[in-house]
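Quarterly update from the structural biology core.
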Amino acid sequence: MKYLKFLLIGIIFGIVMFKSEAASWFRIYEMFQFQSFHMYGIMGSALALGVLGTYLIKKYKLKSIDGKIIQFTPKEKSFSRYMYGGIIFGLGWALAGSCPGPIYTLIGAGYASILVVLLGALLGTFIYGLLRDKLPH
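Predicted structure, tokenized:
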């Protein structure tokens, strides 16, 4: 029962994604064609909220649901890993018309064809897990 609030937040997130058209293939297509500000506005707002949330978590040493202090592990900075990862992610996003967040929203909205995208995302995650130790990090 203590995780019910997270399920409710996920449902609300899905509704907001769908109603704001952030899960719309057409809106994503417009974004990649630089024809509309709609998706850039949504992502910019999410980025600002994420930065603010991270700042507040660090400043007030907020705790997780388990009562442990949330700590952020610094990552090694590398141009190539972010460039290659971004290119692969962006190509997948452009080809599928969906990034990982809206996949579940679209499935919930009844778009059965997005199950192929979900399977591809899960397969890619599995393959990464197998190859992780061999990849440059």
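DSSP finds six helices and no strands in the chain.
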